[in-house]
């Protein structure tokens, strides 16, 4: 029975097997990724004895930072405080004349802080033997810029270039991404280089960074003269890329499963037609309905089970590839178990599929032995009205296709649903890639920097005038703006707040920046502020409300909210204020950026190279589109890596489903196709009718799905980016790419139809006459 069942249904069984295996593969891989992210990071933090939290003081003097540290030592939940001396690298940092992007700092090695870090190359002895011109770099920098032990990196200082030879590569939980602060370890900071102290807090066993912050603020009226980054927040930030990829895989897997269940439902319904005589014969042999139902269920249970198991096993390879990219900066091979995600997917898929099959096959109870003569088709005939229309059109390939749509609506609906879901998924991927690929060009919107051509970051405020004179006297410059993009303000702490700090953009006059807002306007006076949409959401603030902030953690001001904008910068915790806010409140303030607008934008690259020679080590010069590229890469790179293979899988499954539906249509219409051949139609004529049939439904699906994705895409992305508090998600659609994607889908469907229509060659007129 088993061998016979498979022999007669090998194509159907193979298609079901392939579909279920792909669904299981994607779903198991996504669940595996999502549940495998947290534990390795926590274990790694424990292994490296990572700080419970890091505090970046607002004060730049050692005396005030030490006083802040002494306040922390009074906390009952704190074990100890460590001080780390650092220099924030705002200068140009290069390797082989290529700029190293990221938020990096030179940090003096300290055994009590970095003594347990994980070394990929080198060890503790390497660090203890460091010379003044040697360094240990984090793995994230090594992987990003392909820097190896023995290579040299260069820092361009006003006093001259400083070189460091790489002696080792290490990893630690706070050093996993260049889009957050990472430490390049050295023996001692050079003389004359700006240096500051950071605090590393080590809590008692079981104490979290949030608990330390809450205890400190409770004892100090909610105020803290610094920004705290907790271990748990750092772990969450490290998981962003993995969560994005896992969520995409899971969403596509669920959609595929839903569509596949519709296809399976259709397959089994057609099975009832083709196997009616076989079932009737079994009953004449003495089998009852329960025996027959049991045989069929066992057969399909075996197929579905093996498919799910193989899909789950194969998912380990995919999930491990994804996880290895997430954990590569950890410097460890992290493998995951397929048992739990595989068991979850097995239970869901098998239960769902067997339930569908059972519901349909239970109708075998209605099959009577007499059906062995005529199957489950109605033997009675109904007289049809004579047709008075155009017979030539009615019996052309397109006429046959139209009649098939009208007479078998269920089949048409199944193809329509499959096509719409496939087209929706593929267009979603194409649009996402287009947006991702243009994000750097549009970083004025996504980050909040003004849309200039070139940006110069001043490394030492005392050189600000010197650099400004160079810019002012350059005939290629149309105009320039002064700004500060590296300062912060804080809000009054309330219990439950995750962050009180806001990254702050400071300009003299926002009318020249033309920075976009989604509500209201940019600030114009010292009494106004525009806040990020995430801050507005967290604090339940809107335009016209007031917000209390602190400059440097101490100078309190009450500002009118005039606008709300969106940004990835600072994870959405950002604001915009005017320079007059600092000047009117007698607060020490320095510009650190020049935004340059060129008369001829085509000269940008030459201008940058020329300005590097003129400015030297007094400023870090970059194209505006490359500003804070490490932040943009954190958002863009996971999408660029995950979306193409997922789109390919969606197209593959869509093609397989169309193949299955056409095969089953040919099987169920075997008699009709035989009649067509009897009256003179060729196999190619019938194949063309299938092509018209699928093509018409595919075009209708495109007409439905494309406007649907254009309308729904911004709303879907707003939901996906809720962690940044996005209210709007503007999209400039590339209709040429959308058209190409839909043409590709149409071609894939046509190819699937052509391949599956080969079965029409087996339609034999002699078999019809014999029957």
From TrEMBL:
Pfam families: FtsX. It is found in: Cell membrane. Keywords: Cell membrane, Membrane, Transmembrane, Transmembrane helix. It comes from the Bacteria. The lineage of its organism: Bacteria, Bacillati, Bacillota, Clostridia, Eubacteriales. The keyword ATP-binding does not apply. This is ABC3 transporter permease C-terminal domain-containing protein. It is a multi-pass membrane protein. Its main location: membrane. The chain crosses the membrane at residues 12-37, 244-268, 299-318, 338-361, 412-433, 642-664, 691-713, 733-756. It comes from Clostridium zeae.
């Amino acid at each position: 029975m088993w061998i016979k069942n498979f022999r007669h249904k090998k194509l159907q069984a193979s298609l079901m097997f392939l579909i279920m295996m792909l669904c299981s593969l994607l779903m198991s891989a996504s669940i595996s990724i999502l549940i495998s992210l947290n534990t390795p990071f926590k274990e790694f933090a424990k292994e490296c004895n990572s700080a419970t939290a890091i505090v970046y003081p607002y004060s730049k003097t050692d005396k005030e930072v030490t006083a802040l540290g002494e306040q922390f030592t009074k906390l009952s939940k704190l074990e100890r405080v460590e001080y780390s001396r650092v220099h924030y690298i705002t200068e140009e940092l290069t390797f082989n004349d290529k700029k190293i992007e990221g938020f990096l700092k030179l940090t003096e090695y300290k055994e009590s802080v970095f003594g347990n870090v994980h070394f990929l190359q080198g060890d503790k002895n390497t660090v203890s033997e460091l010379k003044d011109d040697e360094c240990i770099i984090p793995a994230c920098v090594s992987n990003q810029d392909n820097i190896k032990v023995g290579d040299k990196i260069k820092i361009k200082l006003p006093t001259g270039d400083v070189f460091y030879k790489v002696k080792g590569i290490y990893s630690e939980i706070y050093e996993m991404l260049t889009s957050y602060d990472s430490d390049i370890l050295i023996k001692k900071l050079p003389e004359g280089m700006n240096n500051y102290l950071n605090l590393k807090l080590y809590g008692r066993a079981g104490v979290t960074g949030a608990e330390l912050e809450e205890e400190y603020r409770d004892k100090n009226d909610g105020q803290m003269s610094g920004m705290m980054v907790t271990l748990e927040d750092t772990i969450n930030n490290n998981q962003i890329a993995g969560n994005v990829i896992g969520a995409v895989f899971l969403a596509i897997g669920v959609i595929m499963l839903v569509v596949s269940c519709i296809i399976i439902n259709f397959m089994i319904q057609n099975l009832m037609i083709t196997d009616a005589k076989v079932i009737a014969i079994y009953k004449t042999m003495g089998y009852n309905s329960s025996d027959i139902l049991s045989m069929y269920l066992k057969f399909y249970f075996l197929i579905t089970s093996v498919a799910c198991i193989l899909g789950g096993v194969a998912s380990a390879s995919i999930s491990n590839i994804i996880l290895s990219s997430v954990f590569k900066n950890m410097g460890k091979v992290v493998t995951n178990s397929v048992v739990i995600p595989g068991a979850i997917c097995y239970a869901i898929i098998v239960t769902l599929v067997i339930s569908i099959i059972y519901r349909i096959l239970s109708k075998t109870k209605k099959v009577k032995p007499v059906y062995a003569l005529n199957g489950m088709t109605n033997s009675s005939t109904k007289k049809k009205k004579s047709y008075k229309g155009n017979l030539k059109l009615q019996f052309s390939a397109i006429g046959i296709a139209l009649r098939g749509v009208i007479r078998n609506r269920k089949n048409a609906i199944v193809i329509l649903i499959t096509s719409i879901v496939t087209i929706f998924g593929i267009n979603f991927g194409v649009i996402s890639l287009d947006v991702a690929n243009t994000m750097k060009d549009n970083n004025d919107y996504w980050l909040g920097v003004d849309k200039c051509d070139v940006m110069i970051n001043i490394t030492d405020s005392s050189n600000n005038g010197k650099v400004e004179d160079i810019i002012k006297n350059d005939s290629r410059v149309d105009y320039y703006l002064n700004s500060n993009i590296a300062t912060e303000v804080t809000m009054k702490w309330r219990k439950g707040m995750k962050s009180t700090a806001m990254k702050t953009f400071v300009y003299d006059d926002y009318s020249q920046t033309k920075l976009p807002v989604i509500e209201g306007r940019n600030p114009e006076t010292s009494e106004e502020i525009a806040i990020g949409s995430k801050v507005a959401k967290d604090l339940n603030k809107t335009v016209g409300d007031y917000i209390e902030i602190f400059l440097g953690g101490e100078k309190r001001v009450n500002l009118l909210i005039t606008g709300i904008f969106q940004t990835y910068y600072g994870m959405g915790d950002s604001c915009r204020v005017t320079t007059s806010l600092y000047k009117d409140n007698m607060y020490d303030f320095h510009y650190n950026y020049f935004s340059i607008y060129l008369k001829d934008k085509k000269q940008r690259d030459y201008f940058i190279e020329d300005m590097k020679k003129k400015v030297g080590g007094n400023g870090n010069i970059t194209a505006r589109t490359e500003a804070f590229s490490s932040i943009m890469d954190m958002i863009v790179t996971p999408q660029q890596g995950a979306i193409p293979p997922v789109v390919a899988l969606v197209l593959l499954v869509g093609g397989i489903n169309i193949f299955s539906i056409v095969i089953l249509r040919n099987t169920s219409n075997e008699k009709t196709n035989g009649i067509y051949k009897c009256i003179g139609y060729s196999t190619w004529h019938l194949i063309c009718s299938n092509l018209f049939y699928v093509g018409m439904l595919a075009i209708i699906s495109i007409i439905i799905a494309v406007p649907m994705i254009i309308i729904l895409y911004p709303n879907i992305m707003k939901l996906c980016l809720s962690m940044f508090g996005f209210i709007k998600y503007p999209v400039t659609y590339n209709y040429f790419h959308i058209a190409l994607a839909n043409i590709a889908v149409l071609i894939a469907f046509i190819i699937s139809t052509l391949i599956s229509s080969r079965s029409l060659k087996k339609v034999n007129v002699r078999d019809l006459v014999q029957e």
